[in-house]
Specification:
By secondary structure, the chain is mostly helical. The protein has one domain. It is about 65% helix and about 0% strand. It contains three helices and no strands. Helix 1 runs antiparallel to helix 2 (about 25-50). The chain is flat, with a radius of gyration of 15 Å.
Length: about 90
């Protein structure tokens, strides 16, 4: 999806900080990554609001949004830490 062993993409500052604290990410790049991740989230939320904000019935439930975001974070952590079940 958004990450994996090939791209190495991590979109969440918490994941970046976790990788840095585990020694898998360089400290010199950490601040720039966090700034870009936060700006990307702001732009993405603005685009979603622009696209769907004026539509009748547009309402994002905080519970649904949190569930989606947590599932993406857990998937990212699973891929980064290689916690997938071994066969």
């Amino acid at each position: 999806m958004q990450s994996g062993p090939i791209s190495g993409c991590h979109l969440n500052p918490a994941v970046s900080i976790g990788l840095w604290s585990g020694g898998k990410f360089e400290a010199k790049e950490l601040l720039l990554y966090i700034i870009i991740q936060v700006l990307g989230a702001i732009v993405a939320s603005g685009v979603i609001y622009y696209i769907a904000g004026g539509q009748a019935g547009f309402d994002i439930s905080p519970d649904l949004l949190q569930m989606v975001m947590v599932s993406i974070l857990l998937e990212d952590l699973q891929l980064k830490l290689d916690l997938s079940p071994k066969s």
